[in-house]
Specification:
single chain; alpha+beta; four-stranded mixed sheet; three-stranded antiparallel sheet; 9 strands; elongated; disordered N terminus
């Protein structure tokens, strides 16, 4: 049984956040390890050797871990925590979302632009919709899933138009959609973590 009385789902790994003390699925946390010379290193894929230090994918939690020197306490040793660790993690997460969206584009399962995104939504094939955080909110509201499909899709406003453009080899992109495929779950997972790091932005 997890904290709060939720039954634990078998097969889903969980870890405790060193900043909040809450237990959550690793997909919703960020792993860090102590690297060379005691430096705290973000391990977003979760593959680096060493004992993992986990923090919720939440800006306030990560800032708390840095400000209160919680990495050293959790590691039980002296560590070097970079002052720009929060910004570094945010940048790396944004890069992972852009990379996954680019892979989807190359696989022919992601499109850019208002009309192409609308067509994918209307067909029921869209699993994820990205809209630039610096784009028009009014125009963004015109894109929506058809009745019965909305609950199955994820909408994000966590990337700038320039960042979305990188995924499509363009200067800027305001709307982009990715279809239901093997990369969709990873896209949603990484975008959710990025939302937690970008204050004032979200789904």
């Amino acid at each position: 049984m997890t904290r709060g009385g939720r039954p634990k789902q078998r097969g889903i790994p969980e870890r405790r956040c060193i900043a909040t003390g809450t237990v959550g699925e690793t997909a919703a946390l960020i792993r860090f390890v102590v690297g060379p010379e005691g430096r705290i290193v973000p391990d977003l894929p979760g593959r680096l050797p060493g004992r993992g230090l986990w923090v919720s994918a939440d800006r306030a939690a990560l800032e708390r871990a840095v400000d209160r020197k919680l990495f050293g306490r959790a590691a039980r040793r002296a560590v070097n925590t970079p002052k720009d660790l929060v910004e570094t993690v945010e940048r790396l997460l944004a890069g992972r979302v852009v990379e996954l969206l680019s892979l989807s584009r190359k696989a022919g399962t992601a499109v850019a632009g208002f009309e192409k995104s609308r067509a994918m939504l209307a067909s029921g094939r869209a699993a994820v919709l990205f809209q630039a955080v610096d784009g028009s909110i009014r125009e963004a509201s015109r894109l929506r899933w058809p009745p019965g499909e909305q609950s199955t899709g994820a909408r994000f406003r966590c990337l700038t138009a320039g960042e979305l453009g990188l995924a499509f080899n363009r200067e800027s992109v305001i709307h982009a959609a990715a279809s239901k495929n093997g990369l969709a779950a990873r896209l949603v997972g990484e975008a959710n973590r990025l939302v937690g790091l970008r204050v004032g932005e979200g789904t």
